[in-house]
Amino acid sequence: MFCRLYIHGNSVKSAAALFEKKFGRAVKCGRDHRFTAFEMTLKENEDHDRNKLRTYPDGFLYYEITAELEIYEDHIRVTDEILEMLWDNGLPAVVSCEYEEELNRYIFSK
Predict the structure, then answer these.
(1) If you average pLDDT over every residue of the chain, what do you get?
(2) Structural domain span for residue 58
(3) Could you tell me the superkingdom of the organism this chain comes from (predicted)?
(4) How far apart are CA 98 and CA 60, in angstroms?
(5) How far apart are CA 18 and CA 54, in angstroms?
C-alpha cells in the first residue's frame, strides 16, 4: 500500500535516524530505506516554502521532508506507528494516502 508522508523537520538525516531507532537498521540504497514492514524513499521536499507551510489547510504540502512509503503489511497499524513516532519526537507529520479516513478513525479512537 502506497502513501506519502510530509514531515516538518530539520533534516532528512535526523528523520532517518528516528526511523532506524524505532524500526531497526534499514537496508539502504541511495534515498531508499527498507525496513521489515515497509520501504521508504526519504528526501527533501522540492516544494518546501517556509512561509506557505503555515497556511491552512494545505500548509503541510510545504514541509521540509517527504517520504514515499510502500507498506507491505497491516498498513493502518504501521502508518499509525510511524506517525506516532514522529509526533512523539516533536516532528509534525501528515500522511496522504487512499486509506486516510480509516487511519484517522484508528488514531483518534485509541
Answers:
(1) 89
(2) 2-108
(3) Bacteria
(4) 17
(5) 24
CATH number of the domain that residue 49 is part of: 3.30.1370.80
Per the structure, how many domains does the chain have? 1
Q: Looking at per-residue confidence, does 17 or 110 come out higher?
A: 17
In this structure, what C-alpha cell is assigned to residue 61? 504540502
> Cα separation of 85 and 91, whole Å?
9
pLDDT tens-place string over residues 26-67 = 998 888 999 999 999 999 999 999 999 999 999 999 999 999
Give the Cα separation of 52 and 29 in Å (integer). Answer: 32
Question: Which amino acid is residue 102, in one-letter code?
Answer: E
What region does 67 belong to: left with phi over 0, alpha with psi -120 to 50, or beta?
beta
Question: Is the C-alpha dihedral spanning 35, 39, 40, 41 positive or negative?
Answer: positive
State the pTM of this model: 0.88
Cα 99 from Cα 96, distance rounded (Å): 8
